[in-house]
Amino acid sequence: MKLSGEYVFDGPREEVWKLVRDPEVLMKCMPGTQTVNKISDSEFTGEVTVRIGPFAGVFTGRVIISDEIPPQSCTLTVEGTGKIGFLKGVGAIEMTELEGQKTLMKYSGEAQIGGKVASVGQRLFDTVSKTMMKQGLDTLNGFLKSNAA
Amino acid sequence: MATLDHNDKKVIGKRVVRNEDPRLLTGQAQYVDDVDLPGMAHAAMFRSEYAHARILSLDVSKARAYPGVLAVFTADDMGADCYPGPPLVSPPPTVKDVVFNSRRQVPLVKEKVRHAGEVIAVVVAETRYIAEDAADLIDIEYEPLPVVADIEQALEADSPLVHDDLDSNLAAQLIQTKGDYEAARKSADVLIRRRFTIERGTAAAMENRGIVAQWDAKSESLTVWDTTQAPIPIRNGLAARLGLSESKVRVIAPFIGGGFGPKIMMFYSEEMLVPWLAIKLNRPVKWIEDRRENFYATTQERGQVHDVEMAFTRDGKILGIKDDFIHDTGAYDPYGLTTPLNTQSHVMGGYDIKNFTSEFKVAFTNKTIVTPMRGAGRPHGVYVIERMMDIAAKELGIDRVEIRRRNLIQPDAFPYEHGIIDQAFAPLIFDSGNYQAALDETLKAIGYEKFVKEEQPRYRAEGRRVGIGVLPFIETTGVGPYEGARVTVEANGKIAVATGVGTQGQGHFTSFAQIVAEQVGVDVTDVRITTGDSAHFNWGTGTFASRGAVVAGNAMHAAAVMVRKKIFKLASKVLNAPEEELELENGVVRVADIPQSSISLKDLAVLANPLRGAVEPGTEPGLEATAYYGPQYGPTAFGVHAMIAEIDPETMMIKILRYVVTEDCGTILNPLILEGQVHGGVALGLGNAYYEKLHFDENAQLLNASFMDYLLVGSTEMPRIDVRHLETRSPLNELGTKGAGEAGAIPVPALFAQTMEDALYDYNFEIRETPLNPNRLFEIVREEKTT
Questions:
Q1: Of A31, B34, B585, B638, whose Cβ has the fewest other Cβ atoms within 10 Å?
Q2: Do B292 and A83 touch (CB under 8 A)?
Q3: % of chain A at pLDDT higher than 90
Q4: pLDDT tens digits, residue range B225-234?
Q5: Burial class (CB in 10 A: 0-12, 13-18, 19+), B730
Q6: Tell me: domain A2-142, CATH 3.30.530.20, correct?
Q7: Domain segments of chain A: what residues?
Q8: Are residues A119 and B697, on separate chains, in Cβ contact within 8 Å?
Q9: Are B747 and B681 in contact (CB under 8 A)?
């Protein structure tokens, strides 16, 4: 399954980058995130509650950040497993500065899902992931604006 | 309506309402899930989420400790009892250069899972809820492996292997030839080549699978209620697996809410597990499959890719056909070559084809196991040949009905020997047929000429796209090895009949009763049929291959004839009249000219089983007989379907305006039941044409494992079906019957494609795949338009 999109943040690129790399902030932004543990600067583990269609469950996951070029781009490798299925994905993030202290984030990735979420929730996965992404980025943007204020 | 010659029959062929319906409609029929035993425990299966992965670690300790859990078993816990099921169909046929690699499923997977949904552990608990919750606590770590999801890629040299001990994913390979295709193609005016793709669906029986097993330690006997189509082989196999005498194992296949093929397996993992658990725990154990499990774990069918070439003369005469195809067997191949052999048997359709060559390769993939599903390879063959006939008609500029007429096997050519083998490894011989008559009947019924000449031009002038399709099909049916039946006149005057085949809604309690009533002279409602209980009948193979009416039916008939003889012999003695002067009707034997000299079957049954006196040497007590029937090869039914449908080219939504089926399955036992079979078959066929498709992703994850996403044909999609009957009796058996169980489904995808091409006459496209859906058809029409 492919996932891609873009988002414009109301803040400079360095600020956005700083927030994205802060596990505390990420935890608040990612809907359903229960815990985030920093293993190293580029590796985090955590638990996320996900609801897709008829299924809800906790995913235990790991995020590895690689190919990092601050504050421009990085690659995210995500792995999650739970009682309702599994998810594996690789995504790329790229940020460019826009005029007026704004930042454009482009993201694209490919995820492999299996188990119950795949068999019954597939039809909803696209919408759910887009909604979660939008919610998360909106929250992040909120932090950005309140930090600036 | 064609003439039905029933003058000599009193009961057979009559539109008798079904004996079983009062029980079914008032909720009095017992299904497996109705079995509720004291102390019964419940099993839940822990299944693989991956299609292909190595199990690195498995920890069931938390599940075991969960309150209410009785036991959790893994492959390690099962030890030596965890070994594969037997091959259901063996050995491979003795065709030259045949390849067959037998790989069968195990009760519990130990090292490597080969499709999503394979069972890795089983939890037994006081309730199903507890068992499911505990199964959620099992910790497992997988090493995901590259997945074999595509049947063509499966056979490429660099493909990952489903079975590591094999050099490739080739499960089987077999070539059959007839005549000399190479010579035929050299003399052809026209050669046509195409590729066709057929994809998977599921049977979607209303009732999922289920098993209840009860062990009686004192008598060391096991009773199993199982939604199987083959209770006797399951009994025999379970006894062998569990080291029990066959007489100590009773398998009951009670009422079953639809079989359609997938309910015959030797064995499903759960079928091996649940009886084993009942003995191990000394408690009754129940497992009922849920719908999502059914999507993963119950066998499926229809994945094939065909590369076809056909040689024609300019006037449309077929010189030969070459069809090479790949057949998807899924992760294992317990059912041997039945399905691809059926495809080969049907790829010449009902046509007189002298030169034929076909090679199939069977591929292992990381998908659910493939075994026959209503149609069982036949729809593929019919799809290929009928699509090719449509394409040839267009290329040669011959009317599509006319090109078929020129090639159909003529009535005087039967028995028509193909010189290849069929699914049962018997010679493929079409015993009898009258294909032209079925075609003519259908054309008349649908009003072909009037539609093409008057109605269609009018529709087109109005801008409506309404198409017509007409095509014939054949169905090989009624294969061996055998079935048996026992008929008994009981002391209450009722007739008890038992047979080993199971019943899944085919109306056996009525059509079999009609066969017996015909001979024994009682009302159909006075014949009580018992099917699928090994305690009632000890021998049999099962319900499959459209064989009930042929194989069990003729065994029934033979036993009933024997009982009739016994009745006449005893009555002759009692009434003091020669047998020729006796009549048997309404449960009474009377002397023809002296009505007051009579005796009821009830009294006769008592006399046949005396409490005093002596049974004469060389005779048996009772009015009872057991008989068996096993055909050398099966009879071949045939028919023609026609459809008029309208399609909206913007939405590709369809409306079927008329649907006609002419079915000829030899002697009709009960037209009402036969029409029901045809209706059900057409429903599946329409599903296979335009609705039902299992979507797997590139990792062989099933993406539509629920009825929210897997689209079944509902009553609103079903057209009214006009069923016409012809009766070309089979010369192979006494009753003259042929099977009809799968017929309805077989020609529909090909018919649908023809109809759509005719409806969308102003678009230039060709349909070469099934199932379609509105989206996909839109794409095909657009793709071809732009190229």
A1: B585
A2: no
A3: 44
A4: 999 999 999 9
A5: buried
A6: yes
A7: 2-142
A8: no
A9: no
